[in-house]
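Give me the fold.
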Amino acid sequence: MGFKVAVVGATGNVGREMLDILAERRFPADQVVALASPRSINTEVSYGDKILKCKVLDTYDFTGTDICLMSAGGTVSKEWSPKIAAQGCVVIDNSSVWRMDPDVPLIVPEVNADAIVGFTKKNIIANPNCSTAQLVVALKPLHDHAKIKRVVVSTYQSVSGAGKEAMDELFAQTRAVFVSDPVQTGKFPKRIAFNVIPEIDVFMEDGFTKEEWKMVVETKKILDPKIKLVATCVRVPVFIGHSESINIEFENPISADEARDILREAPGCLVIDKREKGGYITPHEAAGEDATYISRIRDDPTVENGLVIWCVADNLRKGAALNAIQIAETLINRKLIAPKQQAA
């Protein structure tokens, strides 16, 4: 007897990716339901070789559903996740609403899978921010070996992290530049085509953006509250794939060669680090892939026990959809949930 899974926000970038990954990984689901807002009723989405017609979230009964993959934004999640959880369905939420709730585990399975047992407090599990997910996958094995003191990270984040409208805006602006049409902005505060924008999410009183704040507090919750981290998050004209330049300072000695060997054996990591022309991974190559790619591992001569690495991942997969499904797989593999139909 398999599980019944609902995908909320099934027509969005991440929702569609969730459906694809459920099929790719042969997730043990007897039934998958696509849910969306009333304006998307009967919109068709693909699930493997099947076509699903979207049903409306507002009228759906979750009492027979085991897992809800929630990717409909913070406002929807804040209202609906507790209602869904109260019906005995475990919610795995991709928004930022529940991440810092002390009663909701924030999980990256390669990093802190043991914390998942805390889901029973609210029946909700939070998925981290896309830029945080790949960061902690890279940091965890190094932290276990030499204990990280401080991290300085600069991100180069693709427009897909801001949704389909953002991807359309990059496409339209790029075309406008080539044909000498006026370049119109909408989703972004400044032109994104052939440009970079050092602003993701809203500005906070201290001058950092909320995206930068998320990386700090989420890394502390997932990995270690003692780690000091500062981030600069930048939107770049790339459709899919986030990249990060990461400077790491450790308490204990660690060399670039040691780090390379450690990361090669680490779950979720794939090291491509040839010290030659093109011997690294770019977001174009990471798109559609599950791994967190790590390249350009080198010693940082400006601090004692320092490393610099380049990290790239598909933000729609490891940064969102894949991580959520890995969380669901962890629940099942650890026998923390069973299909309701079987239990009945």
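The chain has ten helices and 14 strands.
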